[in-house]
Amino acid sequence: MIRNTKARYSNKLRYGSQFFVCLAAKQMLKKFYCLNERELVLIFSLSFLEYKKKKNVSLFIDFFFSLLESRLDVILYRSGFAYSVLHARQLISHGHVLLNNSKQQKPGKFKFFVMPGDFIFCNPNFTIKKQNNVSHTRILLQQTTYIEVNSKLHTIILTSLPRIRAYCYPFLNDSSSSKLISDKRVRAFFFSVAQCLIKQH
């Protein structure tokens, strides 16, 4: 599906070109969410099916974002129980996380996306110690209005599907990694990723 990528896009990959910017955005997204190309294309394809139904670009970007942020590993990171999405994936694969009272050891599987009402329990011996990471936890919980976190019981409940608003994306910050990014910039970033995926696939 993505054979001979270099030959196909060599003329477009000029530094500063629109395609270069979109491709760079896609690569940053994959790195942050710990996704390979196949996983990202699958999520994008599901979002694109929604776009075909409603023909609304804004709703398409919202749905694409919602699918990415509903992953179990991302929920753990946004809740402040992991330093990064990669750390969250390690916790899941080692069996330290329960989703609805069952172990989930394959964080990348689509069936392990978290749905509203799902209950998550994290082993307190292996997650971030909240008292030592107050700033990390506070900046993440400013964004997560769709998550109920109980720090004492180490539990998480997803109350609704994620929607684009001000978010913390370290790779979009020029200085502090704890700075929130405006919803307009987040939406523009996801639109660039979508443009790249449409051109490539």
UniProtKB/TrEMBL annotation:
Keywords of this entry: Mitochondrion, Ribonucleoprotein, Ribosomal protein, RNA-binding, rRNA-binding
Q: Name one GO cellular component term.
A: small ribosomal subunit
**Does the record's keyword annotation contain Methyltransferase?**
no
- Report the SMART domains cross-referenced here: S4
Family matches, as SUPFAM superfamilies: Alpha-L RNA-binding motif
Q: Domain of life of the organism in this record?
A: Eukaryota
> Per the database record, which ranges form the RNA-binding S4 domain?
70-133
GO terms (molecular function) for this protein are: rRNA binding; structural constituent of ribosome
Its GO biological process annotations read:
ribosomal small subunit biogenesis
Tell me which stretches of the chain form a coiled coil.
none
Please state which protein family the record places this protein in. Belongs to the universal ribosomal protein uS4 family.
This one is known as: Ribosomal protein S4
